[in-house]
Amino acid sequence: MNWIGLKMIIWKELQRTRQVFLQAVLSPFLSTFLYFIVFGTAIGSQIGTVSGVSYGQFIVPGMMAMAIVMNSVLAASSGIYFLRFMGTINDLLTAPLSYIEIVLGFSIASAARTSLISALIYLTALLFVPLPIAHPFWFFFFLFGSAMGFSFFGLLLGIWAKDFEQLSFVPTIIITPLSFLGGVFYSLTMLPPLWQKLTLINPLFYLVDALRYSLLGISSTSLTISILFILVLWIVPLILLRKIFLSGYKIRN
Fold first, then answer.
1. What is the pLDDT along the chain (253 residues), one digit of tens a residue?
2. Alpha carbon distance 110, 128 (integer Å)
3. Which residues, in sequence order, are CB contacts of 87 under 8 Å at separation 6+?
């Protein structure tokens, strides 16, 4: 393992985040904060409790899940895409770095950025509702595990996209609707039977449910399914990324 090279990729990506701090960290944090003000405080005061907790508490894990998914994908995809766009990815590929070191470098930096945003959301939520962490191990497992997994997916997106329109297509057209339909603002039991079945085929639902379990101790499904979701989220993109780097697909001129 080339530890120096790995650390340099992480440092470079974190510096890129620092340079666009308002857009990369503050903007998604403020957006989620406004969601909490509107849904958690204004609407939540009219709803009361959901699954034995206040509505404000209930939606915090879902908002953290939305932030994890969106920001992990965006951070990793933009990092690798701009190297391709500027033609400097060849410098990275000719360096004494294996594909796993490159993938881990981008993904760890992306996960660190996402974890910072998630921490800000959690600390802000504490100003409005009590939010003990019921299962700390599972909380950090699902937080960092999902951030890394979606960062791997973001790298695939950044390699696949041929322009900025394609780069924004998946987050806007696919991830955002799946997030809103993943149980962020409602419990599974609130839905009619048909919509419950449709929600259960949404993979992002299992991330929301896992974070809700780890924070609040409540869950609508088996924890095993959420763990399998994280494993698949790691295994599938890593297999595809290995094939891409070995074949040079869209990353070598």
1. 788 888 999 998 898 888 877 777 777 778 777 877 777 666 766 777 888 888 888 888 988 998 899 989 999 999 999 888 887 888 888 888 888 999 999 999 999 999 988 888 888 888 888 888 999 999 999 999 999 999 999 999 999 988 888 888 888 888 888 888 888 888 888 888 888 888 889 989 999 999 999 999 998 888 999 999 999 999 999 999 999 988 888 887 5
2. 28
3. 253
Q: Which helix (H) or strand (E) holds 53?
A: strand 53-54
Asked if 150 and 77 count as a contact pair (C-beta separation under 8 A), the reply is no
Residue 181's SS3 state is coil
Q: How far apart are the first and last CA of the chain?
A: 26
Residue of 94, 79, 75 lying closest to 245 (CA atoms) = 94
